[in-house]
């Protein structure tokens, strides 16, 4: 008789399942008369050390996979482990670390060298963001609940994006609004098309077809469809009413109402994002924990991954501080040079839609592609869709609300080209995920779509100064 399909409520809580794995098996544990002996065994077990696959004593509250077997901070091990990173592509990106001090020094020593400063800071952002992503991976690996770990990892990977958006908003004000809008949609497009397509290609090269769980794909695509509607509807409102003789609304009123609508949508979006996080980490964490745990065991190289030395919790915190400091300095230098790059013929749309998302998402992209290659396709899709959802429902609304506080009229009045590209991308990805299977052909189609948008963005003109 075939196994019946389990509902999400039938999966044990992620934290509880981890605790149960640490407990001894006993077929007679349900009897009331056995309770005193059970209590004695529980006390005895709690007093005995637990060990992981490498023979390291596991710290209470940490997942065995994330136990380093060390305490404190060792600078040599910190440099070696961080340099090796989590995969070969990430390790190669770390070879660019010498560009970080060069970029920062150029910014202060030769402020008139605008193009070299932009180029060096653009490259320097790659290893800095990569270290931030690696620190997030190391931290999430130590958490016993896989569902919460994936959400935390995605959030830490998006910090670079939040910093860039805030620096753009604060440094340029109204002048950078168009770049920020393009960067918001560009970030989502880079995730949905370029990163997801690369995941399908990487996984399809090694495996003919990869199957993923409907809870990961359907929830993600449904949320993205709603999020894209939230981003696009204010733009539709403005485009339809602007200079429309059929309605009694002048340009100033339409502009003002579009800003108000955007702020209301931003508040609703943040509430929706918090509900989404609660769904994944509280009410349905057992379901997602089971899915991600299953993905871990699909990785044929898992034994090699488990043998790798890991950072201590203190070293993870140091890595986060170093990477955040570098990312913030580089972001300021990078953003200050954007006007000079635009003056040399590169459009605002191309800078925001293509250049900024590529550099800010490097860590997330490398992680997701490596997971897909190792047949952890559920985790890869969760990282890709999770990052896109966070951009649409958290990062973008934060920019609107911070702009409100700074008296900057940041809104969702996207260009029609950007809005249409977003909606078509969401619909295309949704059609690819509908059958719960992926292959390299679907990946190639996603990447092709991204490059088509990139070519269009390169030739898209800048907005008129009067606007």
List the helices and strands and how they pair.
Layout: H1 14-22, H2 35-47, H3 75-84, H4 88-93, H5 99-109, H6 114-141, H7 146-157, H8 159-172, H9 177-206, E1 210-211, H10 214-241, H11 251-283, H12 285-298, H13 302-307, H14 313-336, H15 338-343, H16 348-360, H17 362-373, H18 377-405, H19 416-433, E2 437-438, H20 440-458
Antiparallel strand pairs: 1-2
Helix pairs in contact: 5-6, 5-14, 6-7, 6-14, 6-17, 7-18, 8-9, 8-14, 8-18, 9-16, 9-17, 9-18, 9-19, 9-20, 10-11, 10-18, 10-19, 11-12, 11-18, 17-18, 19-20
Structure description:
The chain is mainly α and about 475 residues long. The protein has a single domain, classed as A middle domain of Talin 1. It is built from 20 helices and two strands. The protein has helices at about 15-20, 35-45, 75-85, 90-95, 100-110, 115-140, 145-155, 160-170, 175-205, 215-240, 250-285, 285-300, 300-305, 315-335, 340-345, 350-360, 360-375, 375-405, 415-435, 440-460, and strands at about 210, 435-440. The longest helix is centred in the middle third of the chain and has 33 residues, at about 250-285. The protein starts with 13 loop residues before the first helix and ends in a 9-residue tail after the last helix. Residues about 1-10, about 15-35 and about 45-50 have low confidence and may be disordered. One of its GO terms (molecular function) is calcium:proton antiporter activity. It comes from Decorospora gaudefroyi.
């Amino acid at each position: 008789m075939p196994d019946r399909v389990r509902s999400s409520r039938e999966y044990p809580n992620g934290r509880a399942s981890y605790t149960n794995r640490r407990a001894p098996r006993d077929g007679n544990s349900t009897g009331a008369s056995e309770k005193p002996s059970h209590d004695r065994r529980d006390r005895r077990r709690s007093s005995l050390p637990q060990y992981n696959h490498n023979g390291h004593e596991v710290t209470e509250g940490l997942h065995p996979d994330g136990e380093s077997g060390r305490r404190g901070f060792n600078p040599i091990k910190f440099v070696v482990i961080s340099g090796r990173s989590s995969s070969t592509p990430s390790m190669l990106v770390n070879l660019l670390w010498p560009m970080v001090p060069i970029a920062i020094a150029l910014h202060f020593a030769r402020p008139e060298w605008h193009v070299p400063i932009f180029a060096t800071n653009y490259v320097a952002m790659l290893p800095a963001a990569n270290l931030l992503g690696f620190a997030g991976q190391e931290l999430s690996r130590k958490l016993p609940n896989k569902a919460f770990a994936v959400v935390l990892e995605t959030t830490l990977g998006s910090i670079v994006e939040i910093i860039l958006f805030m620096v753009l908003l604060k440094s340029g004000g109204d002048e950078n609004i168009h770049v920020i809008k393009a960067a918001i949609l560009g970030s989502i497009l880079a995730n949905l098309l370029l990163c997801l397509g690369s995941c399908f290609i990487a996984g399809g090269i090694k495996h003919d077809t990869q199957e993923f769980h409907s809870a990961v794909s359907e929830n993600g695509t449904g949320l993205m469809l709603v999020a894209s509607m939230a981003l696009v509807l204010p733009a539709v409102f403005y485009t339809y009413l602007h200079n429309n003789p059929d309605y009694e609304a002048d340009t100033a009123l339409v502009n003002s109402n579009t800003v108000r609508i955007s702020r209301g949508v931003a508040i609703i979006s943040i509430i929706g994002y918090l509900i989404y996080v609660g769904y994944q980490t509280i009410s349905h964490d057992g379901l997602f924990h089971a899915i991600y745990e299953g993905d871990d065991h699909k990785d044929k190289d898992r034994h090699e991954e488990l043998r790798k030395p890991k950072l201590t919790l203190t070293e993870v915190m140091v890595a986060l501080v170093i990477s955040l400091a570098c990312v913030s300095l580089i972001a300021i230098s990078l953003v200050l040079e954007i006007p000079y790059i635009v003056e040399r013929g590169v459009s605002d749309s191309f800078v925001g839609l293509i250049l900024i998302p590529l550099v800010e998402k490097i860590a997330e992209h490398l992680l997701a592609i490596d997971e897909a290659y190792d047949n952890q396709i559920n985790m890869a899709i969760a990282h890709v869709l999770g990052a896109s959802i966070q951009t649409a429902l958290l990062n973008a609304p934060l920019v609107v609300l911070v702009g409100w506080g700074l008296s900057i009229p940041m809104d969702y009045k996207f260009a029609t080209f950007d809005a249409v590209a977003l909606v078509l991308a969401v619909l295309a990805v949704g059609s690819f995920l509908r059958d719960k299977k992926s292959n390299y052909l679907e990946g190639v189609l996603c990447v092709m779509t991204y490059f088509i948008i990139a070519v269009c963005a390169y030739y898209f003109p800048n907005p008129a100064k009067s606007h």
